[in-house]
Amino acid sequence: MNPTLFLIFTSLLKIVGIVFVVILPMVSYSVYAERRVSALIQDRLGPNRVGPAGLFQPIADAMKFILKEDFTPANVNKFYYWLAPCLAMVPALMTIAVVPFGSTLFGVPMVIADINVGVLYVFAIASLGVYGIVIAGWSSNSKYPFLGGVRSSSQMISYELSLGLAVIPIFLLVGQLRLTDIVRYQIENGWMIAPFVGHWTDGWKWLLAIPMSISFVVFTIAIFAETNRLPFDLPEAETELVGGYHTEYGSMKFALFFLGEYAAMITGSAIIVTLFLGGWHLPVPWWNHAHGFHWLLIDGSLGGWRGVIGGLFNIFVFFGKVSVLLLFFIWVRWTLPRFRYDQLMRLGWVFFFEIALVNIFLAAIIIACLPQ
Amino acid sequence: MIPAPFLEIAVLTWGLILLMVDAFAGKTDRRGVAIAGILGLLVVLAASFFLTPPTPAAASGFWSFYTADPLAIFFKRFALVTTILVLVMAIDYAPAIRMGVPAANPHAGLGEFFTLPIFTCVGLMWMASAIDFVMIFVSLELVTMSFYVLVSFTRRNPATLEAGVKYLILSALSTGFLVYGITWIFGVTGETNLTQIGTVLATQEIDKIPLLFGIALVLVALGFKIAAVPFQIWVPDVYQGAPTPVTAFLSVGSKAAGFVVLLRVLTPFLMLPQVGRLLVGVAALTLIYGNFAALPQSNLKRLLAYSSIAHAGYLLIGVVTFSGAAVAYYLVAYLLMTLLCFAVLVVVGNSGGSDQIEDFAGLAKRSPFLAFAMLIGMISLAGVPFTAGFLGKFFIFDAAIRQHQTMLVVIGVITVGCGFYYYLKVVRAMYWLTPPADSQPVPLSALSRLTMTLLIAAIFVLGVYPQPILNALDQPAARATISMFR
Amino acid sequence: MIREYIPVLLQALVAVGFAAGALIISVLLGKSGLRTQTKDSAYECGMVPQGEAQPRFSVKFYLVAMLFILFDLEIVFMYPWAVVYREAVVHSHVIFWSMLSFVSILMVGYVYALKKGAFDWKK
Question: What percent of chain C has pLDDT over 90?
Fold first, then answer.
């Protein structure tokens, strides 16, 4: 088969599989999980009527969104009013393209586009997400959305700085922007939050864990702010802005904002997993007569059904890690109160920015001392 | 022995340190920042006399962007002296700044008003050394950006705001012209380095039309900076509205930098006769417009604005005849007399509150020293013999006659006569008119008195003994002029 | 090189297709209701909308936008530095000090903005 045709064919398969089989159902069920977990935390029941334990609730929600009246208020700017929901959804789905969500399956690498500027691509596309919110706030021609849009643009660009700074220690260490290489490095040298794995006696590697952990924390919190999750949900702060930037939206247009936000959350978690938590890698403890007790690397490189099982296992591990992070997102939502706006800006610009910047030079010094 | 690039680094670092001092100073008096700035610049000025011999221009790397030839060193000192004098003026101007900046803290804004000229100075110094279009552009931007802030500094004053907006828009426009012109020149020659552009022009057969278009665009941009007609429209309003020390800085520093860049940029394009003809036309227009428009002015700042356009005309004659030494000498003379006038204007304006010529009525009786200083400034600007202004015009006309630019010389001489009328209008107000009944003597600080005395002395000394300036530019043209003068 | 971006393009097409498709399906299947003047007006918790729809807002938002551009550029400069750092630092420590001096110059601007209250939203 022509290699280009083969590439297009497999890419399409991967894209359709990831978007429609994994991400979108995951989005729907994270909404469901959010409601169930919230209920659990608040000692309520949550949605439990549609299907067994309310499991069909997302499907019912989707049907409802589709069948609702598609209403466009008279005083909005029509073109941008319609464009905004798409702009909120598209970047979230596009970012996932460079994230390696598995090793290989049938010899095909489990990443949609393995480009050499992976992380730059992530930042470039993810920062487009702010346009959807700003345009929604502006085109609605109404006070609450406008305030939500202005707040959100300011918040998202502020935390983008910390986000951009927090990943630099990783590049210092790996010397690559390609995400598959970063995962490969973590498999060989231990995950980013535990760079001492396999080099147990090297003191510098233990020291390296300090800047890496700081990076991890800053990055994770910045992702919270970027996805407008509590405690950083000021753009939509229900109690003060009704719904924020999407107050004037209904039916499927609102649903796209809603789904886009959850999709961004999933993508953000996927990036965290890839950069800091070893991507699709999970060492399995193993014992056999030849080597005794050791850690086994499972991936799709073996032939036959073993390779297929390995590849599927990696994909499963990757999305398992993502799911754990999603649960963490939900948990935080019901643990922390919302920030005041001045606290939010201060935290982003003064605290995180400085910490992330100092952290880079800390990491640079330690890496300069590492044995080659 | 100090390498030349260290001068700029020192000034920049000192500016940054002062900015930090200002940021952490709280509610203390900010005049210490200005004094520290003046002292720092004096040290750098002294250091500029102990430079290592310049590294020859290289084909790539740092020395393809930066040169430390005598012209560059000369204009670096020029920028330093200008900035020092402007800072002295700024200290006197501090009360007006306090009134003009809306803030709870009375010292807010003063720190920036004293540190921004230092950053402008770095830009001017880099511009003097720039031999690559990229470097020229970047240093020009540093200068212009600092001026955006400085011009609109006293933002409670509507005239200042108007000046700030006009300067911002027109300056940004001219920057656009500059970049576009550079793009065309780069497109034709494939180089941004001026020396290499010259080589390409001399050795290769290239399309002249797009090249001339590019040069014309660059000249338009530089025309904005030096206030040449027809790009002078911003000058009167901006000069009148801006805080007086900034006006002085704008008329001396910005203009001098524009001329040094003009001299450098034109070097590779000399073999194109069209460029010369274009410049002759611009010079003639500038001379006529600047001098005749100055005649009816009743506001001294506005008068000095038109006078600044007129002097750009004389300087352009020097550029047309390509006598770098004459231009340099004229710029030094222009620095001395203009800054002297502005220094008096700041002091008198602070006590009287306005810049109208009628406010100078009877100044000779109220403050004889200030009136005398203004008198010297004005007669030097007009070009009375034994002042630096006279010799400046003399060198320029001399160069023009030897290049057979008779038309320019005729226009120049006529307009000089014109200049006598409007400059002496100020002298007449000071010495012949009676002061208002309730007028008080104008208070004058010791620092300003010292500065003004030095400026007056320099005007007379350079008016009879120009060799120090001409020697500083050790170039064939300079030597020729000196031999002629003997 | 350019081949690597074919999947990105496909992904973009699928994402846009999904968003557009969802909107079109909703338009086709959604019920249409009455339009009234009240329904068309901006939502302000059921009250009649008052004043300008897009009121003036704090100048601080502009300030944040400008500072963002400044520091985001700084970060972009750090990426190529970070990528080559580990190989280059073996030969010479200059690469560390050059970035440190670059950042310290920018930090002067940052400290200045901080002390002037650019990040203090309480004022």
Answer: 0
For A106-125, how does the pLDDT look when each residue is reduced to its tens digit (9 = 90+)? 777 888 888 888 888 888 88
Residues of B in contact with C116 (CB under 8 A): 23
Instruction: List the domain range (segments joined by +) for residue B484.
Output: 281-486
Nearest CA in chain C to A150: C61
Q: Does A367 touch chain C (CB under 8 A)?
A: yes
- Measured in angstroms, the CA of C9 and the nearest CA of chain B are apart by 33
Average pLDDT, chain A: 85
Residue B52 burial (C-beta neighbours within 10 Å; 0-12, 13-18, 19+): exposed
The full set of domain ranges for chain A reads 3-369
Give the integer Cα–Cα distance in Å for B130 and B230: 26
Phi and psi angles of residue A293, each rounded to the nearest 5 degrees, phi first: -80, 130
B41–chain C nearest CA distance, Å = 20
B300 near B356, Cβ under 8 Å? Answer: yes
Structure tokens at A69: 């009246």
Taking residues B401-423, what's their average pLDDT?
A: 88
Q: Using a cut of 0.80, tell me whether the model's pTM lies above it.
A: yes
Contact at CB, C83 and A177, closer than 8 angstroms: yes
Task: Decide if C112 and B24 are in contact by the 8 Å CB cutoff.
Answer: no
Residue B353: inside a domain: yes
Residue C52 included in any domain: no
C123 shares a domain with C78: yes
* CB-CB under 8 Å, C54 with A141: yes
Give the torsion sign (CA, B10, B12, B15, B20). Answer: negative
Residue B305 within any structural domain of the chain: yes
CA distance B357 to C85: 64
pLDDT (average), residues A79-100? 88
- Within 8 A of C77 by CB-CB distance, chain A residues are none
β partners of residue B450? none
Distance from CA of C15 to the nearest CA of A (A): 5
Chains near B with 3+ CB pairs less than 8 A apart are C
Say what the pLDDT of residue B483 is: 42
B9 and chain C in contact, CB less than 8 A: no
Examine residue B473 and state whether it is found in any structural domain, yes or no.
Answer: yes
Q: Is residue C92 included in any domain, yes or no?
A: yes
Based on the domain organization, do C66 and C118 belong to the same domain?
yes
C121 lies in the same domain as C72: yes
Interface present between A and B (3 or more CB pairs within 8 Å)? no
**For helices B110-129 and B70-100, angle between their N-to-C axes, nearest 10 degrees:** 160
From B13's Cα to the closest Cα of chain C, the distance in A is 9
Distance of alpha carbon B478 from alpha carbon B472, whole angstroms: 9
Q: How far is A11 from chain C (nearest CA, A)?
A: 6
Residues in C closer than 8 angstroms to A155, CB to CB, are none
Q: B63-113, pLDDT tens digit by residue?
A: 888 888 888 888 899 999 999 999 998 888 888 888 777 766 777 778 888
Contact A220, A228 (CB under 8 A): no
In a domain, B122, yes or no: no
In a domain, C37, yes or no: no
Considering only residues C15 and A148, tell me which one the structure prediction assigns the higher pLDDT: C15
Chains that touch C (3 or more CB pairs under 8 A): A, B
Residue of B8, B14, B17, B19 to mutate, interface with C, max C Cβ within 10 Å? B19
* For B25, nearest residue in chain C (alpha carbons): C115
Subunits with 3+ C-beta pairs closer than 8 A to A: C
Of the candidates B141, B170, B143, B313, the one whose C-alpha atom is nearest the C-alpha of residue B238 is B170
Residue B249, Cα to own-chain centre: how many angstroms? 6
Alpha-carbon span A76 to A175, nearest angstrom: 48
ipTM above 0.95, yes or no: no
Give me the number of domains chain C comprises: 2
Q: Judge whether C14 lies within some domain.
A: yes
The residue range of the domain holding C11 is 1-29
| Total of domains in chain B | 1
For chain C, say whether B470 makes contact (Cβ under 8 Å): no
